[in-house]
Amino acid sequence: MNKERLIFAPTTKQYTRASLTRASLSPDPLLQFHKWYSEAVAFPEPIPESCTFATAQLPSGRVSARVVLFKELDSRGFIVYSNWATSKKNRDVRSNPHAAMTFFWKGLERQVRVEGRTEFITHEESLTYFRTRPRESRIGAWASPQSQAVGDGSREALLALVSEQTAKFDGVEDIPLPEGWGGLRIVPDEIEFWQGGEFRIHDRFSYTRENEGAQWEIRRLAP
Ligand SMILES: Cc1cc2nc3c(=O)[nH]c(=O)nc-3n(C[C@H](O)[C@H](O)[C@H](O)COP(=O)(O)O)c2cc1C
Predict the structure, then answer these.
(1) Residues in contact with ligand 1 (CB, 6 Å cut-off)
(2) Same domain assignment for residues 62 and 168
(3) Which atom of ligand 1 lies nearest, measured to the CA of 86?
(4) From the alpha carbon of 82, which atom of ligand 1 is closest?
């Protein structure tokens, strides 16, 4: 393939839905997130909990990102669930306990960016969530060494892993948590709320704090 341009997306979309003002913001960005998230659910955005979750490996500094589902917000931060044994994001956070999450709520013309330190939630907390998953998904978590190559590459090989685990847990009601599977909390030190504006004059407000106990400071950022 030569260097000819294959896709060119000229600007067409104007963001006219709403504006965001300093006066309307909650002093606590977790409460502000709660408000926007509730509005995204009510809108309804198709998968309001989906977000891009970015991590970076050290010492290479190599960055990777993927979509995950944000599952819980508590007074400390944002929790996502995944495989913390074999995935690429696992490799990254073990070497560098920092991550970023980006939510895009298309219909509302909003973006939220969260950055912070990562920490694993407790086994008990992960188990509580794991038990809410359908049985097949709990078995699926056992069957999938996430992001590792599958045997001969066929779907049959993948389904064989599932069958193996299904047989193993036959008659077992309370399937245990697989080793390394569970929740990761991002304890934020920066959260930005973006509301699209006409002619790209967007409203952006960023909350930052020095550490978990410190006061949040709010600044308007240039678009
Ligand atoms: C809508 C959507 C939701 C997803 N939710 C999750 C999730 O909650 N947890 C997860 O581990 N992977 C989820 N995935 C799969 C990830 O994007 C990714 O394929 C997987 O986590 C392996 O990534 P990694 O090897 O880079 O860590 C989701 C993908 C999509 C498209």
Answers:
(1) 47, 50, 64, 66-69, 80-83, 87-89, 146-147
(2) no
(3) 25
(4) 11
Q: Do 111 and 77 share a structural domain?
A: yes
105 and 209 housed in the same domain: yes
Q: Which domain holds residue 201?
A: 22-131+174-221
Residues 41-91 have pLDDT tens digits of: 999 999 999 999 999 999 999 999 999 999 999 999 999 999 999 999 999
pTM: 0.96
For residue 1, pLDDT over 70 is answered with no
What Å distances lie between residue 100 and 11, 89, 127, CA to CA?
Answer: 27, 12, 24
Per-residue model confidence as pLDDT tens digits over 145-172: 999 999 999 999 999 999 999 999 999 9
List the residue whose alpha carbon is closest to atom 18 of ligand 1: 66
Active site residue 133: no
